[in-house]
Design a protein that fits this description.
This protein is α/β, with parallel strands linked by helices. About 40% of the residues lie in helices and about 15% in strands. A 15-stranded parallel β-sheet has the order 14-15-16-17-18-19-20-21-22-23-24-25-26-28-30, with helices on one face. The chain has an 8-stranded antiparallel β-sheet with strand order 31-32-33-36-37-43-39-40. The radius of gyration is 36 Å and the shape is globular. It starts with a helix and ends with a helix.
Length: about 1450
Amino acid sequence: MAETVSCRLARHLERLTSEELKKFKLSVVGSVPQGRLEGADCTEVAELLVICLGERKAWEVALSISEEMGLKTLWERARKEDLGLIPAPVLLASSDERTNYQERMRKKFQFMRDGCFRSGEHELFQHRFTQLLLLEYPYEEKKHELLFQGLKHAKVLREQGRLTSLFDPFRYRGIHSHTVVLQGAAGIGKTTLAIKMILDWAEGKLYQKRFNYVFYLSCRELNPLGEREISFADLITYDWPGPQAPMTEIMSRPEKLLFIIDGLDELKFPFNEHRYDLCKDWKQQRPVPILLSSLLRKTLLPEASLLLTTRLTALGKFRPLLENPRHVEILGFSVEQRKEYFCKFFRDEDLGKKAFSLVEGNDTLFTMCCVPLMNWIVCTCLKQQMKEKLNLIRALKTTTALYLCYLSNSVTSEDQNFIPQNLRGLCRLAAEGIWKKKQLFEEEDLRRHNLEAADVSAFLDMSIFQDSDCKNRYSFIHLSFQEFFAAMFYMMSPDKEGGKSPADFSIPDVKKLLNECRWRNGSFVALLVRFLFGFLNAETARELERKFRCRMSPEIKSQLLQWAQGETKRKHEEYFSFKTIFPEYLSNLYETQDAEFVTQALYNTQEIKVNIRYQYEVPTVVFCIKHCPGAQRLSISYFSVGLVLPAGVWQDFSSVISNYQNLKELQLSYIFFADSCMENFFVGLRDPNCKLEKLNLASCRLTPTCSHTLFSALNSNENLKDLDISEHFFSEKEIKLLCKALENQNCKLEKLSLASCHLTPTCFQSLFSSLNSNESLKDLDLSNMFFSVMEIKLLCKALENQNCKLEKLSLRHCFHSPTCFQNLFSALNSNESLKDLDLSLNVIEEEATKDLDLSLNVIEEEAMKLLCVALEDQKCRLEKLSLRHCFLSPTCSLNLFLALSINESLKDLDLSLNVIEEEAMKLLCVALEDQKCRLEKLSLASCHLTSACYQNLFSALSSNKSLRDLDLRGNFLEEGEINHLSMALGSQNSKLEQLREILETFPDLSMKEEERRNSPQEHLRSRLGEVASQTKPEVTSSLSPFDRLKDEQSDLERCHSKFLGPNGPVKLDLIDKNRNIYRVHLPMAGFYHWPDTGLGFSVRSEVTVVIEFGAWNQHLDWTQKQKWMIVGPLFLIRVDTGIVTSVHFPHFVSLQGGNVDVSLFKIAHFKEEGLVLENPTRVESCHAILDNPSFSPMGVLLRIIHSKLIPINSTTLIYCHLRAEDITLHLYLIPSDCTIRKAIDEEETKFHFLRLPKPPPVTPLYLGSRFIVSGSKKLEIMPAELELCYRSAGECQVFSEIYCSNVKDKISLDLRHLDGTLVWETLVRSGDLELALACAQGSSAPTGLHFIDQHRDQIISRVTSVDMILDKLYNKFLSNENYDRIRAEKTNPDKMRRLFSFSMSWDRNCKDYLYEVLKETHPHLMKDIQNT
């Protein structure tokens, strides 16, 4: 093997004396960091030269120094050697200017600057860099929303989480994203990764063909520029290596440019105010904020690519600026990467492993090391302590203690007298910088805080403070260190001599600091407050006083405790549980490591609910739970991707279960225990002191050993009543153990959920056999199990046994065979205990039906007859029956309603989403009028009731004395039925207490205001008010904000096309699509209503109105959002004054039941003087009405009462992207706000997604609530949890992406509360997809549709030379496989249909190409289509 250059250099250096070697080392300082040369031998010096300079350059430098030192013999011997080096790689498409610029970037970023070296000394970046775990996804969701994939996407993370793939097409979209957001927590490695990218590019390793130039912009360095006017060209070339950059050449290919903007969260520029004053010309001089805003908004150089880095907490601020960003989250180091980093840091594998083993023994510290900055601090402290033979770091448990350990190790004996004199000034400087978003400090800033450049020398030596690359500027080594010192400012006692200095009063006090952190976890002072809590720890406080003479303010502890108690109470009242991803204030409490303090803070807490994402959050949760003895309900979800949880972290959990007698409910989701952990965990269940009554382990991946331990615990635990072990794959042996426990008299389980557990016939036999000997089990959930006939017979046999005490049985989505139903219904005749039977969403194919769409969800008439026979039997004790979405035939409905007249036990019947015909409704009403009928709750939501159905129903209500709750949502109520309903409610016999929302028709628009007040609608409202005063019903009835159930095409402009006025529809003109500005001419006096938005006007005379959709986030600041809840769209209305007598503003608050105080409603005006609030004249169920209005940007707000949740009306939106083999769906859950819906429509249309009309949730929901998305088997759902939240139209909306590999399959979807309660469900059939596609293609030239989509039908039917077209598309947009599949079709139309099925995933460029091919191959046809 050839001798390497470093070996040759070492061989020659060994010939030097020790004095000559010392001189040689001094000569290479500048090329190699001085700190690395100290103590280095000949081999190490040679290696350092090669690492820093490269082989050729290192050899040349060594020769030059030898000659200068007069080492002639050495110089001549070395000069004669032939190195045989491979020439340096030639960079692709590289001009001299580009090469020089890359060399400049390489020199600029080749060293990793951190505090482990003395000033001026650095580590080689590539030597220290360690790969990080990345997770990427197409849109930024609230930071938890992708986590419910669990470890399923860990493989994707490792395959895709590389810099080389950041700008590749995203697999779920198939498009390129030109904006990548690199996001993560403080210290997670965002800047490091950004520098790695530009350094790899500069060294020719990355993106050589993709980007000609990469420019790095540090927001920290941009802040001092303020409003200075400069051209964009000057901004990006401030450190160009030559006298002038070739800007014309650079800007000639903008698609070949990448701009890295590092530290977006540190920018202090306001961006929203510049949205109408942007710059398109890179040569034009404009203020820096405008240039950056223009670049981010893609107004300037829209073809260029952007890489942005930011903390997670700052994303919301910049989201509206970015166009379709791709988000990549840095998750930190894996275990192996942590070990690798240790070895690199210590530059000795054995030493690195030794240091790693020291940390590995401390689970808390070890988990903290997944954050690179923490890893560096730990390594730095270990290095110092290992020299002094100390081992103090192993005891560290908190971030604050770790930072303090680093600082303490950095202080020398000489510094101890010097530092305290200037520490307060440094801390004050840090605090001021935090509030002013300032990280770069000039000497003037130092002087303002009584500091001179010489005063900070000690801090420079400690590597806390550092000289910036900018001249005469300083900064902390990391923003988190600035936050640490700012926290020290707040905890310090005032100087004894003079108290607080005048400079102290310029900084907000502790109260304002805590208020800033109070309302959002994303506050820029969140980490500062965490450090402040950390200083409460007694050991930390002593160390601060000992090392820095820094004494804590006596009142700070009481202030923080009071705030923490207030936060706990506020969050509990506002959300009923901790619903944030990971509550920041739990981190604050953990930092104290003060058990008494934490117990006091959480004293009144009864429920804790947290979703854990990162490893370092786990010790925090466990610690806080351990010191919250009053907790009755715990819910913990752990959604870590690719990170292994240390076994020791959960050891305290078993003590919590056994020692806390108040704990009644425990839910653990997505937590993957090792066997040893689970065994320890279930020890607590066997403890006699364990009072746990409900245990939910759904999706926790129980191993056989874990299952054995759990089921064994059931034999001795008499308190556990409810066990959920859904979504597991149990073996027959495990199920036998479960059944053995159920047969044990000590087992008192009352509810057992085995949904989606895929049991074998033997498992079923064991389970159903155990029901015969178990007398405690009342509720059994076997949903999503897909029974065979044999298995259902086993169940029926158990139900017929008198020993079976089941009262509730859930069999949702279980049956395929009609025989299953027949057996089940027959068994009901002999079962006297079952009271609640849920058969929703069952799929049964009726042999006599040929149409597949009609055969799905059909209960055979013979089976229904058996059910009815069972209902008529006096032995049947069913009280609740759910047949939702079962597509009952008319005959089935008739038989069922006949049975109701005889059955005296049934109290609750759910027939939602079935078509109830008029004849069947008559029989239902006859049953309701029968005194034997005891129904108290009837659900007929979305049953397509006709006018005749309503007449019969309302007539029956007048004589029915038992019905308390009637659900008619999703049915359209004609005006003629309003009087009938009013009369029914006024009947003395009617006991109806709750009438759920009906979507009414609009009032007679020709009425004057006085006539309208006397209309049937108003009469009904008054009648409902009378009933409300007597029975307190929950009734909602008024104008609908928009018809949420009507079929809508995907043409975005059609749904905003008309007002309804006294003489019918009035045309609405769209005058500015980008700004959503509409104009309508109201031709006469009267009331006009815009159905699709809910906006309405009463006018005195003819007038023209201009309406613009607004965005709340552009007007309402975050402080105001803490007091006022947005409850409707924002409109900017321009109209002549005095013409409009009243305006109806839509809102989405649900007023049913009178649970919302209407006095809390306000009409918000945004005027020059700011926000002005006005009381509405009156508030109706969907509108706030304001008489004699003046206009400005206006909308409806609701005063926030933190002790009360507000129910709202919501909307579900489903969009589909259909391909030949598969389908992608996007599911949104949003408040019923037309502006949000329209923004989503527009966004989805960009990617060729079509909206499917589906009904909304039928019950009011609460903002902040979270719902599980689930559905048919073989669906890929990401994320599997949705939060109902309000985001303005300009913000990125939350959605779940659903993928199905078979377009012919019917898809069922549902939303459930986290406790499993159904909120909404629907079906997507192949007919829905065909209808949506036909609507989109059949509309006349809808905006946004391509020509080939608009004229799809004609092209399919009239194209003749298909093969010629395919040949031109082959290898461009058609793969070999797709080409063959199209040609395999028999007829030309079939071939074209197949081609169009593939074109659904094409972008506009592809369709443009197809259009040109069609014009070339069929010119006459295309001309004819264009003319028509």
